[in-house]
Structures are given as structure tokens and as C-alpha cells.
Amino acid sequence: MKTANRDEKFMRLAISKARQGIEKGQTPFGVCITKEGAVVSCVHNIVWESMDITAHAEIHAIREACKKLNTIDLSGCVIYSTCEPCPMCFSACHWAKISKIIYGVRIEDAKKLGFSELTISNRHMKQFGNSPIELVGDVLREENLQLFEFWSKREDKRVY
Known about the structure:
The chain is of the alpha/beta class. It is built from seven helices and five strands, in the order H-E-E-H-H-E-H-E-H-H-E-H.
């Protein structure tokens, strides 16, 4: 499978998982972690469900992937996120040694919807921290923007 097609396939899994989360009162953040082309973890955030502000989708997915692979070293893994990871999540990806972050919308997009984002881009985090993580942004950007729009129209939406 071509890289672009594979990236779109896994990003759509993250989008689908985020929609499931939205239906459960969560926010529009979904993540799929893969290794060697196989899904290791695919989750949505559980901040409101768990009442844990650190339960972002990326953190939740990394925890699940580490348990499944029985290691804290996720070298060779790719993380697909509906939104550019926040600084906390980027740091977790770095410490887990995730090889690549692929995201849909940007931090600024989430901030415009009222999320308390620190608008430090992954590119800046990578540069400031000298991180080896490869970054690919704007994958299925329009579909991810539609996901965020779907969430923003809900009467039960909550931000953090």
C-alpha cells in the first residue's frame, strides 16, 4: 500500500474513534498508533470520562500501546492524531521514542474553538528539544476540520 493511502487509512481510523468519543461526550481528539503497518492502539481522549486532564488521546494511546507491546520504547511506531499534539503529548511521544507524528488539524485550530492550547507547534518543540521525531501535518485536514465542526455544533460539548 502506498504511503499516502496508508496514512489516510490510519488517519480515518483516528477520525472514526474521535467521532465515537464525541458521541460519548468527549472532545474531537482521536489517535491511532501503528507499528509495521499494523494497528497497535486506536483510541479517543477520555478527559471527561476519567476526570483526568492528562487523558488526552495521545497519552491514552501511548499507555495502551506500551502495555500491548510490553515496552516503553515505541521506536518504529507512527502516531496518527486528529489534531497536532499539544506540548504534553509531543513530549510523551518524544519520551516513548515514537518515530513519526502525523496529524490532521493544527493546534491553532483547536485554540480557535476554545481549547486552552499552548500554541507551541510540534515543529518548534522538535527544534527546541532536538527531537528526532518526523512530523507530517495537514493529513486529511478537511476531514479533520469537519470532525471539529461536528463537535462544535453539539449542545453537550465541553472544552478544557
